[in-house]
Write a structure and sequence with these properties.
Blueprint: E1 8-13, H1 26-45, E2 51-57, H2 88-100, E3 105-107, H3 113-125, H4 134-139, H5 141-144, H6 148-157
Parallel strand pairs: 1-2, 2-3
Length: 165
């Protein structure tokens, strides 16, 4: 991808489970968090190239195309409620727009925002309230400050105009 000299893009499909874990989904959540982390790490590794990366993290999408398919009941035996997922074409359009704009995160469902904020606020609240040793901070500068996040924020605030990492 790098050698051909043209722009290219890598997208991995995670899910909102990669950003906001759910109950009874440990293995699923672990794989989705790994997929998101992979795209973030690749974004850092490829930032001086023409290769972009995106983590596609959709919420529910209506993917049952066969009207004869009956969803399996919930683990407690109750029938599954009717799907409230996004139309697959809309979800696909969001992926295409995300690739065109080189969005690091392609999210589809605004209703997850508050839960995501709570998760990240809990992480920040868990950081020890003490001064870090200067020698440790100096040795870890590259890990402590990834330029991809401030750039993604600026990119989003500017309306995603032809952003390339």
């Amino acid at each position: 991808m790098i050698e051909h000299g043209e722009g290219s893009h890598i997208v991995t499909t995670a899910s909102m489970g990669g950003l906001l874990p759910g109950a009874s989904a440990g293995v699923y959540t672990a794989t989705k968090i790994a997929a998101v982390g992979l795209m973030e790490a690749l974004r850092i590794e490829l930032e001086r190239t023409t290769v972009g990366t995106s983590a596609y993290c959709p919420g529910p999408v209506n993917t049952e195309n066969d009207p004869n398919v009956v969803p399996a009941p919930l683990p407690d035996g109750r029938p599954r409620p009717p799907s409230v997922g996004m139309d697959p074409l809309e979800a696909g359009e969001r992926v295409l727009n995300g690739v065109r704009n080189n969005d690091l995160f392609i999210l589809t469902h605004p209703e997850f925002k508050d839960g995501m904020q709570e998760r990240y606020d809990a992480m920040i609240a868990s950081v020890p309230d003490e001064e870090a040793p200067a020698n440790r901070v100096a040795a870890m500068q590259r890990v402590l400050h990834a330029d991809i996040y401030p750039r993604e924020i600026v990119h989003r605030r500017q309306g995603r105009k032809n952003y390339r990492g």
